[in-house]
Structures
1.
Amino acid sequence: MTKDRVVQALSGRLGDVVDASERRRAEYSSDASNYRVLPRAVVFPRSDEDVAVALELARDNGLPVTARGAGTSVAGNAIGPGLVLDFSRHLNRILELDPEARVAKVQPGVVLSELQRAARPHGLRFGPDPSTQNRCTLGGMIGNNACGPRAVAWGRTSDTVRELRILDGTGTERTLANDPAVLPGLAEFTAANLAVLRTGLGRFERQASGYGLEHLLPERGSAVAKAFVGSEGTCGLLLDATVELVALPKAAVLTVLGYPDIATAADNVAAVLACRPTAVEGIDARLVDAVRAHRGTVAELPRGGGWLFVETSGETPAEALAVAERLRRSVDALDSRIVTDPAAAAALWHIRADGAGLAGRTPDGQPAWPGWEDAAVPPERLGAYLRDFADLTAEHGVDGLLYGHIGDGCIHVRLDLPIADAPQRFRRFLFDAAELVVRHGGSLSGEHGDGRARSELLSLMYSRDVLDVFAGYKALFDPAGVLNPGVLVEPRPIDADLRLAGLPLLPASGGFAFPHDHGDVSTAVHRCVGVGKCRADTRAAGGFMCPSYLATKDEKDSTRGRARVLQEVVRGALPWSSDAVAESLDLCLSCKACRSDCPAGVDVAAYKAEALYRRYRRRPRPIDHYSLGWLPRWLALATRLPRTANRLAGNPVLRRIGLRAAGIDPRREVPRLADRSFRRMWGDLGGVVPPAVPGRVGDISSTATEVGTDRPDVMLWVDTFTDAFDPEIAWAAVRLVQSLGYRVRIPGRRVCCGLTWISTGQLDGARARLRATVDALDEHVRGGGIVLGLEPSCTAVLRSDLPELLPEDPRAAATAEAVRTLAEFLAEQPNWQPPPSQGRTVVVQPHCHQHAIMGFDADRQLLATMGINVTEITGCCGLAGNFGMQRDHYDISVAIAGNGLLSALRTAGQESVLLADGFSCRTQAAHLAGRRARHLAQFLLEQ
């Protein structure tokens, strides 16, 4: 049976859970590693029976099978050339949780944070807590033997496992616990290899490379389940797991210890461990510098160039503090800080968390890659190892930012390895690094597994006898070698299948300039290294990414999935015009949240615009590119006869016909035009500013208000939406600015930022409009004037897209620097204070583009100063400009609104005020919830 027929047969038996499309194969061609292997098909099993059928057909036809959870493996152990089984989509239930016995039974696709959430009300948690805990699955953790910062107290995943139910490579279901008889030949295999198991394995806690076969030893309880943990999908497919839970500490204290450098900090780890901490993490000064550069500030640290973050716990706060005091007295730190306030401790831990994400770039901004990100040595050797490792990286001319689990001897670092242009140097470095860690008695991997990244190097770490034992163990479970071949046993070369090797450059050409990626589209889309934060629900922590994935739970709709498809395009494997690209980008809202929330700074909104530009340039486009993409043109005409336009739009039959013809979903309402646009009113008043801004524009009189002449003018950016639909917002802003003694001006002629042209990929048209904008604002900007934006999406274009679309025009950068949001402008006024509004309840919907580009800090601080009770919605409103208006997007737009905006409004009640500066956000709230939202300018004047 040919491979195509295998996929057909599989689809015939399993139905739509099998996907062999070009797009799907691209999405699953990589994980968070350096490697790319296109699978033959992806399977999303719904049941144990689906897993068994997929394995049976693959085995009978010589197709490899690779298990996958969230795809966050940095070692390349979640990709393969045959069938990839994604357990996260359907097999993701917590089957049992017994608080008395402190155990949980889970399917392999359960996300760790979901298990933690379920256990927390019982005062329990799962011990290991890797940094990817808000998206990594228990199946993946068992596959890699994951750890995290608190493994120093609660152990590795293998320490938590009681029982595993699996299918081995023959398709036989087995329940692994502590009885070797469960697998024919295992007891005899163990007895025959006792000497090797006792001398070659389990020498220190983080010896994670290879199989953990020391657990098979009788003196270790013949723990068959624990030995299976860390086998990286090479011995069986997990169906469910019974794991132990631990009690949450009743009180915890953070102590930060400062040392001259991180190696000196590591020298002192024995004294730290003597105090039995629950976590010991280390960070380097350069990592702190990177966080400071990114955020502008970091929480206060004690003196030093390297720090240990040590968490101690106790039954009471006093007991935890006493341990911290004893710790401080017993170490040789330069300086220290004990933190008992949870909020202050969280701010310090954020340095570590943010630094882990920023480690994807070197201090000089070059991309940094995994490959040697996970080595571990016995903790007493760590200081010496770090000094030798610094010499090694200098010798090879590579650089990276250090952090890690110092208490366990495990160091994380991503390096600017020359994968793309010199894979042979990449190979030499990894061999030299492996030899160095072996000299220090260490392990190639401390928690991430070996995968494709390190399996070939196992021969440097282990004797031939140990390698033969590994091969014999796998053969007992998987005699045909169908499960994840090329990993651990008979490994693929470490420089095979590299995603970046030989990748051609794709210079920017007429679209975005991609200045942060050296003008190369290929470098831009390869910012995505697959860490998968876009699959996590980070709204509780203020995150907005990725609204479409949160609604569909489909990898296709994640930032990572889209980047993977575009990576196939830039390597020439897919054309820009392919259906795969169109399907991948279809549900991208262009919200820009990934630009700020993704640790690697992936900007799918820009990539989507670029893709549409390259596909349709000088070609006919979809009708909505003209109806919505040229919206400012149509509104300029409609505002001449607003009453006529409103009457036509208000006729239900005409509205539905018109919307369908325009490529817009007929379930959408058409926003009502104002009776007079702001620009027309401004012209009618001869540029004279009215003295007050009551609730309705029609009440405004033409009496002038005197303003000061000692301040520069403020240029009010009159965006299309405010001008046509909500001119009262502009008048409110004028009144506010005027009250501070500024004279307000507007551009002398109608200009546009080109937002709708950008979102539909009409970048030639966008650049033409931005050039006209720069011309209109240039004199004002050169004179030191401020440009005040009211619509966040347009303000973001001027702040960000303008210099990236007009990089050759030096005026573009100067204009971008002059742009302010209203809250930013008010925050810069030294003598202005917002009106108090103690006890008022406000629900605020930050605009996605503001979140991503300008940030919401100024608005947040302003509302806090007013004493308002604020519910801040995190996540997109779902309309997102043209996205939610387009045909076939209505349902997903509503679903996204339900995840944030609508649920927040239901909880808050009708008496609360809804604040939303974005026209899209206000429109969505009015249409779906019947709620009228206020702009910040209006809200401030109404107090």
2.
Amino acid sequence: MQKHMTDKHRRFLRAVRAFIPRERVYTDYLRRLAWGTDAGFYRLVPQIVVRVADEREVVRLMQAAGESGVPLTFRAAGTSLSGQAVSDSVLVVAGKHWEGCEVLDGGRAVRLQPGVVGARVNEVLKPYGYRFSPDPASIKSAMVGGIVMNNASGMNCGTHANSDRVLLSARLVLADGTLLDTGDDASRRAFSQSHGGFLRAVEALRGRVRGNKSLTERILHKYSIKNVMGLNLLPLVRFDDPFDIIAHLLVGSEGTLAFLAGVTMRTEREYEHKASAMVYFSDIGEASRAVVEMNKLQDAAGERIVHSAEMLDRKSLASVGDTTGEGLTAVLTETKAHTADELAANVARIEALLGRFALYVPARFTGDPAEQAKYWAVRSGIFPAVGGGRRPGTTCLIEDVAFHIEDLPRATAELQALIARHGYDDACIYGHALEGNYHFIINQSFSDPAEAARYEALMDDVVELVVGKYDGSLKAEHGTGRNMAPFVRREWGDDAFAVMRAVKELFDPAGVLNPGVIFNDDPRCHLSHFKPLPLTDPLVDRCIECGFCEVNCLTCGLTLSSRQRIVVRREIARLKASGENPRRLKELERGYRYPGEQTCAGDGLCSTSCPVGINTGELTHALRALRMPPGSAGHAAGEFAARHFAGLKDTLRPVLTMADATHRVLGTPAMTAVAKGLHALGIPRWLASMPRAYRITGVLKTAPVQESDKVVYFPSCINQTMGLPRETPVAEPLAEKMAALLRKAGYEVIFPENMERLCCGTIWESKGMADIADRKTAELEEALWRASEGGRWPVLCDQSPCLHRMREKIGRMKLYEPAEFIWTFLRERLEFRPQPGPVAVHVTCSMRRMGLAGVIVSLAQLCAREVVIPEEVGCCGFAGDRGFTHPEVNAYALRKLRPVVERAGVRVGYSNSRTCEIGLTAHAGVPYVSIVYLVDACTVAKR
């Protein structure tokens, strides 16, 4: 019996388990806590988490909820900020299984499922010259379901190209379990027969609104600027067809009306030419006046030529380390065009207008994509920078308001003064000034009643300023959620609020869809259930739980994501500090081991999309270190291995030989079955791509000729020990091929002394034995220093993960992995003869983190006429030995690889990490080998 559940939730659970597998229904506290957390500042822990896989499951889930009277809350990526995706009942997650993306009409439209990440849609549309117009700052992480259901917008789409404006049709599941596709004639006919009364009620609501002239005018006025407060009433004015009204009512409804199973949306033509400028003003008032005037600039077609004007006040600039001047306000301005001449004309007009204002320095527009990217990275980094730098123990809150553009100069100054008056000295204001839309960030403590009262007073004054004085929007893009639910009636008035209530009662008469969101009878609901952010570990204490890391976390959806790991560790830290629930603490510590620690690849890719650069892999290493302190049996084993490393490799070689012999006798199918059974007993998993034993011979180390250019080549431990697998398209082990390629290019190859004993230390680092790892790195450094004659010659290591650690720890030599070394030193010495046919390239985590992803791809493009970079494949999940000990991680990480490879007709893939190549070969259906083989095959030495 689940003690945390009510009786109706137990009945619901029994019903759900009849049609959804247990592995997608979570009732343990650890996963309920982890999945129940979103990017906002509220915390509710669901009683049940259900990860649905298709529409049929959702239909039955809705029916079960209706029969049991159990409320449901839907979420996709969990990047929402206002409390609309948290629940203390049942949380329904539609993410990883809902990633359908179909391009229509040559890119002019796109059909999407709710689990597709927004940025992924743009990747798919890019070859067609179109883009997905809704552009929240979280687009690289937020999913379509959340973007549409929150009507989320951003820096460019404004009100003219948000989800409501570009939605063509919707596929939805109503609270009674009815599936409706508003873009499908058969579905519309069936719905008309089964739900005629529903359609007539929609038409009656349309008539009610249009029959009230003042209400109609108010709706049009309110939606002339960004507004996501309450339900979306604009469809009742814009559309006649009840099916169109139904589809658009869902936009911004935050899961309170139905489940969104899919959308068809109109796309926007991408601009080929863009220019941006960071324009600095001495005060925020002058900046606001300039924005008002820029908003008036139009081209011959009546379109605005300024596409973005992002305001950054002095605190915002300070948070991201801008040193242009003291106390400045900046407006990041962007213009776009379809031709270079149009862009130049736009820039000239904007610069002429800005010349009328008091600028701190002259405006300078740039069309350089790299420089523009830096500007926009500054803008995107404000919220995480302020949140990451908050005082320990405080919560980072972001509010989101909009004013009519003509009110901007006065309203901006008054908002800034209001925040200061309440003592929020570290608060900053920034946002989409061209739309009159501002965000302000405060770091708030709720540790005592006085602090909570200060926040309440601030919000009351904000409501009076935004709504009472300027009739603006209390929520422009982030959703009403729980945060602004008490103020919906205050902003809209009784007539509009009554229509919203009527819509809710029509769609959800039992009130089971996301209760407490948008409609909440508690006037103080925004002041309760705040999320605790206790100090846990300096490695992760800056985390604001935004979830941006999850797109690069390979175990997100398998066990725990990087964000979820931090959430659980924080709760463990809180329980330890408070002592309030020892039993739960023990449950979490025991339960965390497999999903949190053992299946974390520790690859660090999460840090590349984390706004404050948190590497959850480092936390995992720290936790492993606590389990293996000096003096423990595990640490002693690590010490033994480090001191007898050459002997350890000698022990491994016979094991590889025996495994290969058994493979030869049994054959691959039988050997795979045996290996699977042994793995169930705790034995590391054998794979058919497992290499045979290898030892570098003295002949290889002897250079045939003396050359004026030399390179120190350190073959990684694995390439000293492992040769070729039984089935492979290449003939020589990597160490031999690498040396041959270097000599072909005219290099003398120097090997460090005592290679058999040397290691970069990655093996021990990954196990949490940093002290041993650092000692092995130091040994390697000394050997390389001698071999390179004090750093005179470059050093090459053939394994990119090893090179990554070497670069982090060794600073006095030039260190390279194969792709960069070939690109830098061998490219001009070799004649490249590109081979026909496609090749696949896997960019390893370490290459991405070293900023070398483009290098290996460019190198492959010199060698082959078609280079395929498999989409949505990041870290391979092999993670050193994790592919042997936890093969499920490798399989999950590469679940999308094989279809891409087969579709492209690839016969061989290339990378620069041997362990990655083992896993890639096992799951791609084609062999993967080092990029060195490709370069050697398609080059000859220049004469």
3.
Amino acid sequence: MTAPGRRSSTFTRLLRHGFTDPSAAERLLDAVELAAVRDDPVLLEALGATADPDLALHGLVRLLEAQPDPTARRELLDTLIAAKPLRDRLLGVLGASEALADHLARHAGDWRALVTYEPRDLHRGVEDFERGLAEADDPVSLRVAYRRCLLSIAARDVCGTIDVAETAAELADLATATLRAALALAEAAAPEDAALCRLAVIAMGKCGGHELNYVSDVDVIFVGEAVEGADDPRALRAATALASHLMRICSETTVEGSIWPVDANLRPEGRNGPLVRTLSSHLAYYQRWAKTWEFQALLKARPVAGDPGLGAEYVAALQPLVWQAADRENFVPDVQKMRRRVVENIPAAEVDRQLKLGPGGLRDVEFAVQLLQLVHGRADTSLHSGTTLDALEALAAGGYVGRADAAQLDEAYRFLRSMEHRIQLHRLRRTHLVPEDEADLRRLGRSLGLRTDPVAGLLRAWKRHASVVRRLHEKLFYRPLLDAVAQLAPGEARLSAEAARERMVALGYADPAAALRHLEALASGVTRKAAIQRTLLPVLLGWFADSADPDAGLLNFRKVSDALGKTPWYLRLLRDEGAAAENLARVLSAGRLAPDLLMRAPEAVALLGDGNAGGLAPRGRAQLEQETLAAVRRADGAVQAVAAVRGVRRRELFRTAAADIVGSYGTEAQPVEADQGALVDRVGAAVSDLTAATLAGTLRAVVREGWGDTLPTRFAIIGMGRFGGHELGYGSDADVLFVHEPRDGADEREAADAANKVVSEMRRLLQVPSADPPLLIDADLRPEGKSGPLVRTLKSYEAYYRRWSLVWERHALLRAEFVAGDEDLGRRFIELVDPLRYPAGGLDDDAVREIRRLKARMESERLPRGADPKLHAKLGPGGLSDVEWTVQLMQLRHGHEEAGLRTTRTRAALAAACEAGLISAENATTLDEAWVLATRVRNAVMLVRGRAGDTFPTDPRELAAVGRYLGHGPGHAGDMLDEYRRTARRARAVVDELFYA
């Protein structure tokens, strides 16, 4: 008897053998059914070797209780103790699978299926499983026989007799035998249907690839033909009835549960298409209508049941089409987009637990392998395997994948599949989620051989293997390309020149020969620079391929590297700062403007880092002005000073463009900016602030050069148009008015001459040809337009506006805002024009009619000849002009009463009009969306083409790049144009209602 407070020796032994609830285990061992063996050390050792000793013991007691009589119970116990193979298999299953323990408790004699231990039993095939299912004569008995066969696979799996790949192959073979048995049952139930048709069952997915899970949908496609002399439509109906019955036999739940769902949704047209088609119908669909992913799915097509001749004909007819898929337009982007869509559809709470679909999961390996098979399989039949690991081995043997990468991926894939198998085996439920419960994690870790600290060891191993997959699945494409051009390891199998060219074409490179030359220049040699670039390029090439112009991205990267390769910080930045390399790849492949700005001063690449180099956050006007004025003070003369100011402008334009591109494309570290309006506002404010600071610095430089510290007249610059509205785009001119006021005692003539000289010199210096982009100053909105003086005094403006101002001038003054020069003079100018732009009592009818007439004339006269009005972002229906004139008419009419309307910014004025009840919320949203989209179109055109434009490009690659910026993937330029037309059409309807009504 155990002394009070002391644990029994059995309790201690149970703890030592891995039991987590020794007290419950002691009670189970005291059960009468175990009386004969409870003290046998062999039993305790065997239980302790299982994944979950508590579960195994509980399952064993249930199995003994289920035996029909003492003789059967004694037979089981004697065999268990005497036969190690049975002991390991039976207890191994009971410790790993609650569901199979339930099966054994219901079918107490099925344990005998684990007794056999012969060489042929070690690796069972389809014929063995067909024999195991042969006696099933209805759906219920088929389920029992299926579980009995599954029991034998699980037993050999948990004991390590077969590895994970062999387990998956046997599960696929069992599925094949089951489909054949189910079809036989369906044919026996409807012999008249069977007599009319030939029906072939084609396995797809993991079943077709000979790599099935314990619990998985079995993907199939059905092919049917009429027997000779039978009516075709009637035969197809018969084949459809047989196929439907087969699916019900396997999928429906009975007293013995279900086997697995049979899923036929991979067929042509998916669930909307007929369940059974003839071979000619299948062929016609794949030749005309099939998408890239459907050819990818056909990689795993394998006839498994029904008419073997018809199944072979199906595969022979469709396999050649599979190996032509890589020639399709947008092939690689289509496959990558499908992968991204899979990841995006994972619930946020599950992403970090997903073994199959999450980043670094099984699907990453499978997608990468399948993509490489499709690219190179047409010329190399050794790659024609539906099994992931076999295909990976063939890719490595052919030099299409680096051997070290393939070995790491093989190891990671096997581990992740083993985890998936053991998770599903526990309750025979379809899941790909790593459990969160400590007990489940402990059982899972122990089942994979991790005994010391199973939970921590499991999580470490899982994260390590997922990290390997995440790191390699993209590089799998690109590293062999570098090996092919760098040729650093003689004797290694590597891509041939033709295979490298094929891969570059498949990745979207229009000029593969030039791209390979760039790679050779970047990656060849034994220098530190080449070594680091060989590390970076596999990832960079993937990002380039994800753009609309991979060739430009790679060429631009070579130019930047040639310029900066010898500076130690450049490669260190790309290697060590997570965001820098991806930001650079996005910027270099998104169009011409940002790379052109960068090439003029490549050191600006430092802005792309995530350290302390400044980053991509826009700088405020005060900070910019402080820098430009400091540059002017340091310079010798106006020419040098303005050159320095323009250098600041170029750098900040690059910063703004890069931030815009990164926000629009998104990166691993920073998702796509959801609020497109915020992106537009950020660009408009940044470019407007930068233009104001540029003018302020240039003004200071010109004044200092010609007059020292003080000009004989006060001088102010008033921003107009988009400049005054903080809405400048990358290609916008600076619309301004110049105002001056002679200082006390100064000669008015001299003051006017000085002001005109300042303007003339500013315009000249800001347009001097140089490496920096020019800034064009446009003063055409001044009184009397181009016919009026370039600079006026404040009194002259006052006199003119009092006597002669026209409606269009009052309209233009809605955007007037002081931007540079004498602050007091600027403030007084704004006070002067406020009553004009916000008149008391609003506008009279004549003024409203005049504004409408001007708008109509502008539309008819200024729209370029041949341009499609519906796609003109500025002057077309529903474009910028429509929205802005509608908002500005409300400002002119109601700005005097509504303080919120007294703003130079379009979106702010629109929001204020909505708040004041001048426009409904729905209509305001419609106009805002149209204005934001039209503005983004203009920004996109400038970023892509490097020159301003108001219409969509006609060049397909440029149009695709604009689409990528606007959030439309490869092949969806038409959707982008449709979206623009739809948005503009809705906006025009609101404009017709509010502006022209």
